[in-house]
Automatic annotation (TrEMBL):
Stretches for region Disordered: 1-59, 106-126
Biased composition range(s): Low complexity: 12-26, 111-126
Transmembrane segment boundaries: 75-97
Keywords tagged on the record: Membrane, Transmembrane, Transmembrane helix
Compositional bias annotation for Pro residues: 1-11
Organism expressing this protein natively: Hevea brasiliensis
Superkingdom of the source species: Eukaryota
The protein's name in its UniProt record: Uncharacterized protein
Residue ranges with Polar residues bias: 30-42
Length: 126
C-alpha cells in the first residue's frame, strides 16, 4: 500500500498530517501557477553546444573523420608506449630491489639441476 504522505490529499480537511505537509509547499507550486518572472533552472535545459540544424557536407564530415582517426591513433600509441615503459620500469625496479632477475621463469638450469637429483630422462639425454 502506498505511503499516505506521498499521495495528494483528496480533501484538505480530511487529515491533519496532509494539511501540515501541504502547508510546507508554496502555493504557486501546489496550484500549478507559475509566474513568468520566476527563474527555475530545472524547467528548461539549455545545452552549451546545440546540435546542427542540418548535416554538414561530405568534405567536412570526411575531414572530421580523418581528424578523429588521427586522434585515436595517437592516443592508442601513447597508451601502448606508456604500458611498455611502465612494464620495463617495474621490471628494473624489481631487479634493483631483488638484486637479481625478478622473473622466476628465466632461471638458469644449472641451479635447478644441482639441487634436485637427476632423473632417468636427464640421464638418457647424456
Amino acid at each position: 500500500m502506498p505511503d499516505p504522505q506521498n499521495l495528494p490529499p483528496s480533501d484538505p480537511s480530511s487529515s491533519s498530517s496532509s494539511s501540515s505537509s501541504s502547508s510546507k509547499i508554496p502555493s504557486e507550486i501546489k496550484n500549478g501557477n507559475t509566474n513568468g518572472n520566476a527563474n527555475f533552472s530545472a524547467q528548461k535545459v539549455r545545452y552549451p553546444h546545440p546540435p546542427d540544424a542540418a548535416n554538414p557536407d561530405q568534405a567536412t564530415l570526411r575531414e572530421q573523420w580523418r581528424f578523429a582517426i588521427r586522434q585515436y591513433s595517437r592516443w592508442y600509441s601513447h597508451a601502448w608506449g606508456t604500458a611498455i615503459l611502465a612494464g620495463l620500469s617495474f621490471f628494473a625496479l624489481g631487479w634493483i630491489i631483488k638484486g637479481a632477475n625478478p622473473l622466476p621463469s628465466f632461471k638458469n638450469d644449472d641451479s635447478s639441476s644441482a639441487s634436485s637429483p637427476p632423473n632417468d630422462a636427464n640421464e638418457s639425454r647424456r
